[in-house]
Amino acid sequence: MNTTATPNPNAKASRRKTLLTLAGLLVVAGGAWGVYDWLVASHFENTDNAYVQGNVIQITPQTGGTVQAILADDTDFVRAGSPLVRLDPADAQVALQQARAHLAQTVRQVRTLYANNSTLAAQVKLHQAEVERAQAGIARAQDDLQRRQSLVGDGAVSKEELQHARSQLDTARTQLAAAQAAVAAAREQLASNQSLTQGVAVAQHPNVQAAAAQLRQAWLASQRTTVAAPVDGYVARRSVQLGQRVAAGTPLMSVVPLRQVWVDANFKENQLRNIRLGQPTTLTADLYGQKVEYRGTVTGMGAGTGAAFALLPAQNATGNWIKVVQRVPVRITLDAEQLRAHPLRVGLSMDVTVDTQDRSGAALADAPRKDSEARTEVFDAQDRGADAEVARIVKANL
Description:
Blueprint: H1 9-39, E1 44-53, E2 57-59, E3 65-70, E4 77-78, E5 83-87, H2 90-152, H3 159-197, H4 206-223, E6 226-228, E7 233-236, E8 245-246, E9 253-256, E10 262-268, E11 280-285, E12 289-301, E13 327-334, H5 336-341, E14 349-355, H6 384-397
């Protein structure tokens, strides 16, 4: 006996109601997501392709020498101006002593030039007196000759005596010419010596200034035997060893100022559409996790994609081509107080979220930087003692 099951009308109605409820929930959820995406999610751009960057300052000597002492090692914190490496100062000290002696000798030689002005002027006056004496001799010889010529007709003076008087006149004229030539030569010597000294004091004489420059150079070389840290930071990658002979420019170690780090966030091309300079960002680091949230600001965008500046850039015009989404680095400046409380290290990965709601800023910087990106005054003090040393030596030899 066959029996046919009759559908239960209540079960069909219950199933239809469940499907309608699920469909309604899906429509509501989709609408809510659309509203959220339009009002909230569309105003944020996120990437985890971001890394901490910083200045890695390479420490190199400005002069060559043998390493005598190493005063800082990897992971050490150093202050700006703190000595890091000392080179053997013996050669520099010898050169400095030679420069001091050369300056002192030059000052004395220049003093002699100034003293010669008075000597040469006196010689000019002396030769002028000789000219006057020669002129007086000529006048006397001419008078003698005239008297003898008037007496020759009477026979009172012999021809030999008359000839002798003429010879004396010629001799007096020769002496006058010699004295005048000596005056001209003395004046030339005086003018030549005055051209070396006129218009400047001994301390400002070119020869003294050249010797002073050599002393300053030797002074700087002696000061540079101590290699100092240009900024506050942590020592990394120390490669120098005791007794090593290093030349100027040889890498010794690096100093990393961790309080001046920033983040380079590499956003995709389509994410840059709404990113502008000055927009606020929130960042988290894998080092601290979600417990620490950093605040930052977009301060710059790269001038090209990472592939454009790669060592071997892609050649898309050759072979088969597959489109690859490119990324552009965006620089984000971090809050200094947060960095002090929760320090980061160069190379750490970050998660970055940019709030793009305010799009009034520029996409690229449109004005040059007003202040320097980095500056140190450590090296300014190296030549301050040189001027005092030059002044001391010049004063001692004047």
